[in-house]
C-alpha cells in the first residue's frame, strides 16, 4: 500500500476530546460544502517560528530570495492558548528551523497544557538539546529532514548536517520510547528527492528500520535557482518509479511505511492546477514576521495578525473568504495557486511543481 500526503485529514495520534471532535466535525462539513464564512475554528494552527536556519541546504529557497531573519513573537503565541483545547494540532514549522527559536521548548510546554497535538519538523541538529522536552511535553509527532543515507550525500546537500550525530540522538529517543512503552513520538524521515540522491532512498529506508523510525516521506525537489535545474526529477518518471518500487518492497519487508508523491503523469489532479486544496478551511498559518498567510508555500500575505481582534473575525476576514471561494476554481485562483508547489497539494503532472526558477515563491519579509 502506498501512503499519500494528507490533503484533508491530519495525523491521527492521541484520541480527540469531545470538544475537539465537535469542532472537527463542523469544520469538515463546512469544508466539504465550500462555506466561505466558518463557524468552526481551524483544525490546525501552523506557526512559522523563524525563517532563519542553522544549515545552508543547497536547494533551499533562502538562497534565491531575500530572507531577512524574523522570529515569532511569544505574546502572539500565548494569545492562541484559548483555541488549543478545540483544535486538533499545533504545528511548528515554516521556512526556517523551528527548534532554534529561543523559546521553542516553552512553546511545547504551553501546548502540552492543552488538548492539541504537538508536531514539528526539524533538520535534526538540535535533537540533543530538545530531547528531554520531547518526552517532558509529550510531543506526538515530529519529522526529521535527511536528504541522503550517507553522511557524504546528506552533508553535501544539507550543508552543516551530520547524519551520524542525528542518528545517535534518534536511536536514544527510540530507546527511551521503547523503555517506557510509549506510543509517542511518531517519527518520520522527510527526504527531498533529486537527481543526485534518488538512488539512496532504499538505503534511507534501511537506516529508518535500523533506528526504529516508523515512516519515510518523500517529496520531490522544487527548483528555485538555475544552478539546481540539473537536480530536478522532471521528465525522469521511469527512473523515479523504479526506485520507488524498490523502496516500497524494502519498506514492506522491514516494517517501514513509505509516503510517496505521485509519479509524474499519474497524479490524481489530472490537468487541474493542483489537487483539491483545503488548507484555508483546515489550517491557520501565521508567519514568523507576524503576517497571516493562506499557507506556508505562497508569497501571498494577507495582513498582520492583531491579537486584540477576536480570532473568528480574523479567521473569517475578507481575505480568507475570497480564498475559500477561489482556491479550487480554475481561472479565478491566484497565480501562486495556479503554480502550486506545496508538496501535499501540488499537481506533480505539471512542470511548475518541479521548477519555480524566476518566480516569486516566498513572501517578502520586513526588517
Please provide a written account of the structure.
Helix content is 33%, strand content 13%. The protein contains 13 helices and twelve strands. It has helices at 18-33, 74-79, 104-112, 127-136, 151-157, 163-179, 201-211, 237-254, 279-282, 311-315, 318-326, 335-338, 351-354; strands spanning 44-47, 56-57, 89-92, 117-122, 141-145, 158-159, 186-193, 215-220, 257-259, 283-286, 291-293, 303-304. Helix 7 (201-211) runs parallel beside helix 8. The protein is globular and about 50 Å long. The model has no long low-confidence stretch (mean pLDDT 95).
Number of helices: 13
Radius of gyration using CA atoms only? 20 Å
Give the integer mean of the pLDDT values: 95
Low-confidence stretches: none
Distance linking N and C termini: 47 Å
- Largest pleated sheet: 10 strands, mixed
Order of helices and strands: HEEHEHEHEHEHEHEHEHEEEHHHH
Helix content, binned percent: 25-40%
Task: Look at the helices and sheets and give the structural class.
Answer: alpha/beta
In terms of quaternary structure, what is this? single chain
Q: Strand order across the biggest sheet?
A: 9-8-7-5-4-3-1-10-11-12
β-strand percent reads 5-15%
Q: Number of DSSP strands? A: 12
Q: Label the overall shape.
A: globular
Amino acid at each position: 500500500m502506498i501512503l499519500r500526503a494528507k490533503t484533508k485529514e491530519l495525523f491521527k495520534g492521541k484520541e480527540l476530546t469531545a470538544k475537539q471532535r465537535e469542532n472537527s466535525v463542523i469544520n469538515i462539513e463546512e469544508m466539504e460544502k465550500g462555506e466561505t464564512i466558518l463557524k468552526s475554528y481551524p483544525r490546525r494552527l501552523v506557526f512559522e517560528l523563524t525563517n532563519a536556519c542553522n544549515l545552508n541546504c543547497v536547494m533551499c529557497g533562502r538562497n534565491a530570495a531575500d530572507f531577512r531573519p524574523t522570529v515569532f513573537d511569544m505574546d502572539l503565541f500565548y494569545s492562541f492558548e484559548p483555541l488549543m483545547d478545540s483544535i486538533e494540532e499545533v504545528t511548528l514549522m515554516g521556512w526556517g528551523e523551528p527548534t532554534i527559536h529561543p523559546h521553542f521548548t516553552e512553546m511545547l510546554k504551553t501546548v502540552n497544557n492543552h488538548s492539541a497535538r504537538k508536531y514539528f519538523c526539524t533538520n535534526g541538529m538540535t535533537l540533543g538539546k530538545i530531547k528531554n522536552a520531547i518526552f517532558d511535553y509529550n510531543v506526538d509527532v515530529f519529522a526529521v529532514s535527511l536528504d541522503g543515507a550517507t553522511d557524504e550525500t546528506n552533508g553535501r546537500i544539507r550543508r552543516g548536517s551530520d547524519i551520524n550525530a542525528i542518528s545517535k540522538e534518534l536511536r536514544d529517543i527510540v530507546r527511551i520510547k521503547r523503555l517506557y512503552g510509549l506510543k509517542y513520538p511518531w517519527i518520520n524521515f522527510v527526504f527531498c528527492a533529486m537527481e543526485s540522491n534518488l538512488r539512496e532512498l532504499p538505503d534511507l529506508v534501511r537506516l529508518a528500520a535500523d533506528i526504529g523510525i516508523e515512516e519515510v516521506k518523500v517529496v520531490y525537489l522544487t527548483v528555485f535557482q538555475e544552478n539546481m535545474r540539473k537536480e530536478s526529477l522532471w521528465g525522469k518518471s521511469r527512473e523515479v518509479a523504479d526506485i520507488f518500487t524498490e523502496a516500497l518492497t524494502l519498506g514492506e519487508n522491514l516494517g517501514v511505511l513509505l509516503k510517496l508523491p505521485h509519479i509524474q503523469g499519474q497524479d490524481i489532479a489530472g490537468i487541474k492546477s493542483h489537487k483539491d486544496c483545503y488548507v484555508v478551511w483546515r489550517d491557520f498559518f501565521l508567519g514568523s514576521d507576524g503576517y497571516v498567510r493562506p499557507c506556508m508555500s505562497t508569497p501571498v500575505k494577507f495582513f498582520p495578525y492583531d491579537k486584540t481582534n477576536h480570532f473568528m473575525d480574523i479567521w473569517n476576514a475578507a481575505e480568507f473568504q475570497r480564498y475559500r471561494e477561489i482556491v479550487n476554481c480554475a481561472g479565478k485562483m491566484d497565480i501562486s495557486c495556479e503554480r502550486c508547489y506545496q508538496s501535499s497539494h501540488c499537481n506533480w503532472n505539471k512542470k511548475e511543481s518541479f521548477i519555480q526558477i524566476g518566480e516569486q515563491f516566498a513572501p517578502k519579509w520586513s526588517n
